[in-house]
Design goal:
The protein is of the alpha/beta class. It has a single domain, classed as Maf protein (Alpha-Beta Complex), CATH 3.90.950.10. The protein contains 6 helices and 7 strands; from the N terminus they run βαβαββαββαβαα. Strands 1, 2, 3, 4, 5, 6 and 7 form a 7-stranded mixed beta sheet that branches. The longest helix has 20 residues, at about 40-60. The chain starts with a strand and ends in a 5-residue tail after the last helix. It is found in: Cytoplasm. Its EC number is 3.6.1.9. InterPro entries: ITPase-like_fam, Maf-like. One of its GO terms (cellular component) is cytoplasm.
Length: about 190
């Protein structure tokens, strides 16, 4: 029986989603994690980064008995290119311009550590954007919202207006495939 879930993240969206598991939870910011990703090995790299985030929390808390640590890392992939959080408004514009009228994939690597095991997986969701004009993109960037999101948009905010269609887990696009996390834990015998 898990008595607490510790989220290795400072993302407010992930904090909101982890509560859906119905177990007391808290979030701790992971530190000293190598978040280098290679397009040639993105699935394995995302698993590694997610587990490293979880391990960085394990070092901080020490005792993991009756606790589960969850780490995650989300990226947007467009035609083989990784679109991370934009470094500046120009990069945000470039990201959104690429995604306009096109299909992209959102990948989230999840790493989970408990007292009995550690494991990881990657969830992938396909997203189709409507065609965006330059003025719409600029107005969205002016809100500041795109600056802390992979691919420069949030599906849970004004960015939802850009989404024409999704195939897969909506919450994965928010940054935490909570249904898959629940399923993976339940399938391994964890009780909530």
């Amino acid at each position: 029986m898990a008595e607490e879930i510790i989220l290795a993240s400072s993302s407010p969206r992930r904090k909101q989603l982890i509560r859906y598991l119905g177990v007391p939870s808290r979030a701790i910011h992971p530190e000293n994690v190598d978040e280098t990703l290679r397009t040639s090995n993105v699935i394995e790299d995302l698993k590694r980064v997610a587990l490293e985030k979880a391990r960085s929390i394990l070092v901080k808390i020490g005792n993991i008995d009756k606790r589960i640590i969850v780490g995650a890392d989300t990226i947007v992939m467009f035609k083989g290119e990784i679109l991370l959080k934009p470094k500046n408004p120009d990069e945000a514009f470039s990201h959104l311009k690429k995604l306009s009228g096109a299909v992209h994939e959102v990948y989230t690597g999840v790493g989970i550590i408990s007292s009995k095991e550690e494991f990881s997986f990657v969830e992938v969701t396909r997203v189709k954007f409507r065609v965006l004009d330059d003025n719409t993109i600029k107005k969205y960037i002016e809100t500041g919202i795109p600056m802390d999101k992979a691919g420069a948009y949030g599906i849970q905010d004004f960015g939802a207006l850009f989404v024409e269609k999704i195939e897969g887990d909506f919450y994965n696009v928010m940054g935490l495939p909570i249904g898959r996390i629940w399923f993976e834990l339940r399938d391994r015998g964890y009780k909530f």
